[in-house]
Amino acid sequence: MKNKKIILTVTILIMALFLCLLSCQKAEPPKLLKAKWGGPRNISMAPIIADKKEFFKKEGLDVESLYIQTGKVAMDALISGDIDFAVIVETNVAFIKYQQGANIEIICSIEDKYDDAIVVRKDKGIQSPEDLKGKTIAVTTGTTSHVYAYRFLAHNGLEKDVSFMNLTPLSIQASLLTGDIVAGSIWQPYRYNVLNQLKDKTIEFNDTSVYKAYAVVAVRKKYAQNHSEEIKRFLKALIKAEDHIRTHSDEAIAVLAQELKLEKDLLKAIWHEYDIAIRLEPGLLKTIKQEGKWIKETQNGFGDKLTPSYDDVINPAFLKSIAPERVN
What's the CATH architecture for 117-205? Predict the structure, then answer.
């Protein structure tokens, strides 16, 4: 009888230990899924941190990152299937929806940015916005560079007194440095590069009250239909990145400054030009629709086109499924 009690006790202890091991055992990490994202550095801060801090990997994503000079080029890469997630701006969406078959949708916004400015050659006689009358301003058409320049000029009553020429951001930077152009609308780090090299030969017009740009993440509609798990994991990693940026800002700024090729102190000084948050808010769609109307009214080749409705361009389902409080 005594032996039976001992055997029973030992059996119970073994079972309890086994159950404890099962409950205490760490959950296996999710199986890695592959994905590729691309976009300009200055609007990709959350994905950069998600990559560098391995938040993508922790969410089960084997991610390839690709830095692309403009959102417009990132949009082209998305449509062609070269990348799965494109970090672009709302202006890119407003333009691309005029094209038939541009079946993309926004899954979240990740950053509000105010880092566009018109950089001018002060040594060429430009001291104030009024001095831009009769001048040509270089912009990168279809981007925030273009929209900011137009809104700044309109705010100062100059939109009909200035002409535009289309150049890449790098070409605008180079042309300002050589003096081939006297004014160019660019974002960081190109602004900094020009100002840093030309010193007191330049000034910039950076009025954050005239324009708020939205950096967004977009996917192809077909990708959204077939890769919901990848999208959810991507969004979860971005949310972790946002939290890290807010709670460890100095560390995040150091990482981002290196990736943006800016001095850490400079990025800290202009940090107010960026608001990094993973969300969807009504202002995004409103801005896209406003820009769609502006394109039709002001841009060559769009006057006879039907303005898209844009009502299908945002898909809140994925973000709502993991963080409903971030969807307004």
Answer: 3-Layer(aba) Sandwich (3.40)
